[in-house]
Amino acid sequence: MEIKVLHQIMDWNEDVSEEVKATLASHKICMINVMGSPGAGKTSMITSLIGKLKDRFRIGVIEGDIAGQVDADRIAELGIPTVQLNTDGACHIEAMSIQHILPCLPLEDLDLIFVENIGNLVCPAEFRIGESLRITLLSIPEGDDKVEKYPLMFTDTDCLVLNKYDMLPYFDFDEERVCANYQTVNPEAPLFRISSRTGNGLDELAGFIAQKAGSAVS
């Protein structure tokens, strides 16, 4: 019975996800779903990417959190249209929430929307939200076993970002293990190594996003 209910919820979410995607396509907007654990550096990466992409794209942000608006305030300080989405305990963002919140953004004036999903390596992977691109973050301090423990998150993504890469010398992190496991579950998707603190690797990631965004809205 529980499996049946979950299947119905997923089907319903997929329907709404397609509606969201159609709405965004009508405005020629590429929406990027940024996923990763709490503390992986999602907000810092988005902030850094805004700096790299703002001259080419008009950018908005949907900031997802269980509660509070600390990260949304940080993004808004950059002069970027930002909407806070609080899930009040839910471990992921659903397409219906995105559908309800899109009118709060100036869609006619945007090319690119970043959605920072709830910090979680399980639930967000299971729910499409109408995005054109999925980015999964794995930070060096989290450990090198996450691809094996949470395969769906790393299978159903368009790229993997190893964040806080400047901290590699200070942690017992087997990079080869991560790369091998990622290659096994998602052989066609690229892997980027970045540090939002130093800026290393951000140009390559920004270039990948710019190319995908251009393809998504063409």
Automatic annotation (TrEMBL):
Domain (CobW/HypB/UreG nucleotide-binding) spans 32-192
Q: Which domain of life is it from?
A: Bacteria
Q: Give the matching SUPFAM superfamilies.
A: P-loop containing nucleoside triphosphate hydrolases
List the GO biological process terms.
protein maturation
Q: Which Pfam families match?
A: cobW
GO: which molecular function terms?
Answer: GTP binding; GTPase activity; nickel cation binding; zinc ion binding
| Swiss-Prot/TrEMBL keywords | GTP-binding, Hydrolase, Metal-binding, Nickel, Nucleotide-binding, Zinc
The keyword Ribosomal protein appears for this protein: no
Spell out the PANTHER family in the cross-references: HYDROGENASE MATURATION FACTOR HYPB (PTHR30134:SF2), HYDROGENASE PROTEIN ASSEMBLY PROTEIN, NICKEL CHAPERONE (PTHR30134)
Q: Which family does it belong to?
A: Belongs to the SIMIBI class G3E GTPase family. HypB/HupM subfamily.
Q: Can you say what this protein is called?
A: Hydrogenase nickel incorporation protein HypB
Its organism's taxonomic lineage begins at: Bacteria, Bacillati, Bacillota, Clostridia, Lachnospirales
The encoding gene is hypB
